[in-house]
Amino acid sequence: MTERRRFSRIRKRYPVEFRVAGKTCLGFTHNLSPIGLFVCSVYFPRPGSRLWLRIKVAEGKSFLMRVEVVRSYRVPQQLTRFVPSGFCVRFDHAPEEYFQLLARLFRVAA
After folding, report:
1. DSSP E strands: which ranges in the chain?
2. Model-level pTM greater than 0.85?
């Protein structure tokens, strides 16, 4: 299978908070990239939904981002230990601090 991704991802787990239908939902990041990320969660916003997503990083710092849900993926119960369930988002707006964090993470991983 050929790789379709335009940007490499870095695996990093940060707590995530978002709102769906007026309800605050929680999850965590699975991987990060310059154009989007994958959120592991038991809540699955519909593809095409736009929402605000807050990623909480070290020392109480957090990033608020406007995102669009690109796809969601729910795996069967017996595979949840091996394959993450959640949804992919593409950024409509992400703060400069997110890209600085990403640059640091890629430098450490190299």
Report:
1. 10-11, 15-20, 23-32, 36-40, 50-56, 62-73, 86-93
2. no
